[in-house]
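Researcher: Structure prediction, please.
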Amino acid sequence: MLQLPHQPLQVAAVPPQRAPAREDQAGPWHSEAVCRRDEAGLFFAPSKEPTAARLSREESAKRVCARCPVMVECREHALMQPEPYGVWGGLTAAERRVALARRRRRDVELKTSGATDRIAG
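Model: Predicted structure follows.
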């Protein structure tokens, strides 16, 4: 039997994950994310994905998000970054754009009504 010299096992470098915008004192919110145990392909679209397949995949991802204990933190992270791709905190990229537009509109309305109250008062 031929014996080969022992070579140390080489481990491929894993690219670092994108860090969240904030970390709680108990540790980063994403360490508790349910999606860490699922395939990333569920949360991010492959190129040239057909619409029906995309909608089905996004619904599956949202079901994972719905049972996640850090869904709100994940969603806020995705809105504050803003994350341009994937399902984060139960929202697709398109849904996050709508949510951000609503927040901007609400902020403008609040500023406008606050200025009007000061002038009238």
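Model: Residues 93-120 form the longest helix (28 residues).
Researcher: Thanks, that helps.
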